[in-house]
């Protein structure tokens, strides 16, 4: 199962990232998870409202509303994990909506690593920096949810683990979060 975290307001970006590039980032995240081996794919909504038509939800994606989305990404993650817990899913691959260059090949590689890992934990790593997706076995969901507060998401729980399988994916994507529109980013970098 896949979970796209798309509930935030995107304050640095200037609008909810679920709407970025006419919804292209959202479609890319759903496609990456689905084509990488995740079914179904949950999309956690928040700032855009609970109605999936406000974001042009891709066909087959399952909308989940995070009513407390404004408290941070932890609320979105908890909403996604609650929804996943109502399914027979064994593990979830979690991706934020703002990593548009992460494709199905990255997802498939990290899923394969998680399946082989006794810990049931794997994550993509780009140039020695932890990234997404993060794949988490169901045995961790309660603990992840308990520690997912504010903007930490699963970071607090995962950073305390020494059994996380880190999967190098530099050859497939940059894994960069897109926090600013392209023109703003260029202005900030001096280009």
How would you portray this structure in words?
It is a single chain. Helix content is 33%, strand content 20%. It has helices at 20-36, 73-85, 104-116, 141-147, 155-159, 182-189, and strands spanning 2-5, 41-45, 61-65, 91-96, 121-126, 129-137, 165-168. It is built from 6 helices and 7 strands. The chain has a 7-stranded mixed sheet with strand order 3-2-1-4-6-5-7, with helices on both faces. α1 packs across α3 (104-116) and α2 (73-85) packs antiparallel against α4 (141-147). The longest helix has 17 residues, at 20-36. It is of the alpha/beta class and 191 residues long. α1 links the parallel β1 (2-5) and β2. It has one domain (2-168): Spore Coat Polysaccharide Biosynthesis Protein SpsA, Chain A, CATH 3.90.550.10. Residues 2-161 form the MobA-like NTP transferase domain. It holds the Pfam family NTP_transf_3. InterPro entries: MobA-like_NTP_Trfase (IPR025877), Nucleotide-diphossugar_trans (IPR029044).
């Amino acid at each position: 199962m896949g979970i796209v975290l798309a509930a935030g307001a995107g304050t640095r970006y200037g609008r909810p990232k679920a709407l970025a590039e006419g919804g292209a980032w959202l479609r890319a995240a759903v496609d990456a998870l689905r084509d990488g081996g995740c079914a179904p794919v949950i999309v956690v909504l928040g700032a855009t409202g609970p109605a999936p038509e406000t974001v042009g939800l891709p066909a087959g994606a399952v909308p989940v509303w995070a009513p407390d989305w404004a408290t941070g990404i932890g609320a979105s993650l908890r909403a996604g994990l609650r929804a996943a817990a109502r399914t027979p899913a064994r593990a979830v691959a979690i991706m934020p909506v703002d990593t548009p260059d992460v494709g199905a090949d990255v997802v498939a590689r990290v899923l394969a690593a998680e399946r082989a890992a006794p810990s049931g934990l794997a994550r993509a790593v780009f140039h020695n920096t932890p990234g997404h997706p993060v794949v988490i076995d169901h045995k961790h969901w309660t603990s992840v949810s308990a520690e997912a507060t504010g903007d930490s998401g699963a970071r607090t729980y995962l950073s305390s683990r020494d059994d996380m399988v880190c999967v190098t994916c530099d050859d497939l994507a940059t894994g960069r979060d897109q926090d600013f529109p392209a023109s703003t980013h260029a202005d900030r970098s001096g280009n």
